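Suppose you are handed a protein chain with no further information: no name, no annotation, nothing but its sequence. What can you learn? This example shows the usual starting point.
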Amino acid sequence: MRFLIVFTLVLLACNLSDLDTKKTGLHKVSSNIKESKENEVFQYQLFPGKYAVSIGNGQFDTILESWVENQWMYANSSGKTVVQKDSALQTAIRFKNSPSVSIRDIIIKGMNSYLGWTAVANGNNSLENQTLYLVKKAFNQSEEIVLDSFILTR
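A reasonable first move is to predict its three-dimensional structure. Written in structure tokens, the prediction is:
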């Protein structure tokens, strides 16, 4: 009982608003266009030439949306967490089933670079009008298998 009272007093003495649940100082990408607009970082939407893409073994995923936004991060300003916008741009792609499907060996390949499954291209290197490839590439192996390709345009 004494432990419960001490624990409650310690908990009440802590300022829980100081917890950094949004991980300030780390660059983020919006999870969808709506969030990008709410964060006031949205620049413009991109559209794929096709929405259904092969992820191998007869399975497909769907590109739901793609957009270009300013790079951003959460920052602490006067005790409040705010969105801090950068001048550099990033491109993001949101798929329907990922990352819920097991796709750890599937990555997106752009011009001379590999991107994460969300295809975030940082800097002012937009993925617009580039052929992007979904490739299966096992970790630490040079061999890759092209599963599909698509192009994003305005």
